[in-house]
Structures are given as C-alpha cells and as structure tokens.
Amino acid sequence: MHWRKITLAGVGLLGGSLGLAIKQRRLADRVDGLVRRMASVSECTRLGVVDHATRHPARSVEGADLVILCTPIARMREMVELMRPGLDPGTVVTDVGSVKGAVVHDLEPLVSSAGAHFVGSHPLAGTEKSGVLAARPDLFDQAWCVLTPTPRTSADALERVDGFWRALGGRTLHLTPEDHDELVGRSSHLPHIVAAELANYVLSPLHPPEQALLCASGFRDTTRIASGSPEMWRDIALANRKNLMRVLGVFIEDLDEFRHALESGDARAIADFFEEAKQRRDQWCEQGRSPE
User: Fold this and answer.
1) How far apart, in whole angstroms, are the C-alpha atoms of residue 23 and residue 29?
2) What does CATH list as the number for 3-175?
3) How big, in percent rounded to 5, are the helix, strand and coil portions of the chain?
4) Which architecture, in CATH terms, is 179-286?
5) Which residues contact 66 (CB under 8 A, 6 or more apart)?
6) What is the pLDDT of residue 128?
7) For the residues 11-27, what does the mean pLDDT come to?
8) DSSP assignment, residue 73?
9) Which stretch of 124-133, 167-176, 179-188 has the lowest confidence by average pLDDT?
10) What pLDDT does residue 292 have?
C-alpha cells in the first residue's frame, strides 16, 4: 500500500508518530503536516516527522490522496470545512479520534460533498505524553486500530485505510461507530475518569503534606493516564457522554456494593471482589491482550 502524498492534520504525539512511521516504512512519496503555530512549522521539519509543514488547511491537502485528522475531535469539523476547497476528488480522509459516532456523523457527509471518501479510524495507541517531541515510530506496532464503516462507506476506501494501518504494523477491527463508542466508553474513557479522580482526590491540597510522600508505584501506575491532555479528554468526555453516564452509573453502583461489604464486615464478599478482579485480569493478560 503506497500513497502519493499523506497529509497529517495536527502533528502532536499521534500525528508526529504517524509521520515517523510512514517515513520509516516508506509508505508515501511525501508527508505534509498541518499545524496551528508558526513555531511548529520549523519544529516539525527539524524533527523529521514531515517533509513540509504549513498553517494553511486547504493548501496542506492539495495533491494528497490520504488525509489523517489528528486534531482534538471538537475541532475536526471546522478543520475539514477549511480543507474542503483543497481536497481532490477521490481523496481518502480518516482520523484518529477516540469517539466515532459524532465524528462520523459530522464528517462523512462533509467529506463526501467534496467528492472525497471518509473512513473513521481509532488506533488504540498513545501515552500520557503529548506533543511532537514525544513522537515515536513504533507507537502503532501491534496496536489494534478500529475502523468504523457505515452503509455509505466506499469499499475501496475502507480497504485502503485498513491496509494503511496494517502496513504500520497494527491490527485492524471493524465495528459500527455506535458499538465502538460503547466499548471504549468502558475500557478507555471510564479508566481515564477514574485515574483523574484518584489524582484529584488523593493529591488534594486539603490532605496533609505527608500524603504525597506515601504515594508509591501503585498510585503512580494507576494514575499515569491522568497526565494526558485535558483538552483532548474534555472533548472525548463530552462527545461520548451518553455512554459515559451509563457506565459511570454502573461503576458507582459496583463501588457502592463494595462499600456495603466493608460496612458489614463481609470478608467473603471482599475476598470475592479481589479474587474475581485478579482472575479476570490475569486471564486477559494470558490471552495476549495486555499491551507490553
């Protein structure tokens, strides 16, 4: 799978890592980047993540046969509207957003009106770090990437986007946008909220200063993802709020059951709680589903 020109709209952790991986694997003749700040133009080219960077949306996609939206999801619609005059008929547009329902609903008809093809994507890769300085070419190795086709999706565009993620070393899975959002609401978005609340509560200035000294590796590992981009996670929470409200409700009910077990001193229920969690996680790791 080879592309003439790939444009990365947003060159942070994911966009920068895509640029490095594309160039390392020689998947395109040219990689261009669309950035917001003037300082990023020279930074991106200096770091070698793109061949050329610009701040002009329509100009950035001229001649591109693949455009990848790596901006926060709340800015994607506006970005595509600005790009649309420069899109060539037949260009394939995809994204890396963590929420698909709202993104696909907004972008599919907009991209189609320019004669191009939109395919929703979500690579399950990333770290708590942000910015192009954190980019790495192996970020997508063995990572799952979910593609979210609809009845309007071009079969050829879907096949090409699927091939692109596999060419980066990833593995692909096709789901409806709705199924995707329900599943990641539990496995990705809920854990981030839990990590953020742990950081907010445990590290609150209302606690004694010794509290932070007693936060060891368990606390550090559990709250690692709370260091992610607040802007990005605000957008994700709002875009997937219907699923998040539901899973938060169930999660709070489960915690309340554990609280009742503590109140009543129910040793069996407490032991079962921890034993079940250990068995489920150990089985998940043994099946090779835990990232290294």
Assistant:
1) 9
2) 3.40.50.720
3) 55, 15, 30
4) Orthogonal Bundle (1.10)
5) 3, 5, 6, 7, 28, 91, 92, 93, 94, 160, 164
6) 73
7) 94
8) G
9) 124-133
10) 47
Reported as type and span, the H/E element at residue 87 is none
Spell 24-44 as b/e; 16+ CB within 10 A means b: eeebbebbbbbbeeeebbebb
Helix and strand counts by DSSP (H, E) for the chain = 13, 8
Higher pLDDT, 229 or 157: 157
| First-last CA distance in the chain | 27
**Which residue intervals of the chain bear CATH 1.10.3660.10?**
179-286
Sign for the pseudo-dihedral over CA of 44, 46, 49, 55: positive
pTM of the model: 0.91
Bin 18: left if φ > 0, else alpha if -120 < ψ < 50, else beta: alpha
Q: Give the chain's mean pLDDT.
A: 94
Q: What is the DSSP string of 196-229?
A: HHHHHHHT-TTS-THHHHT--HHHHHHTGGGGS-
The strand pair at 3-9 and 171-174 is best described as: unpaired
What amino acid is encoded at 53 in this protein? A
Q: What is the residue whose two structure tokens read 């070698």? A: 48
Backbone angles phi, psi at 150, to 5 degrees: -125, 175
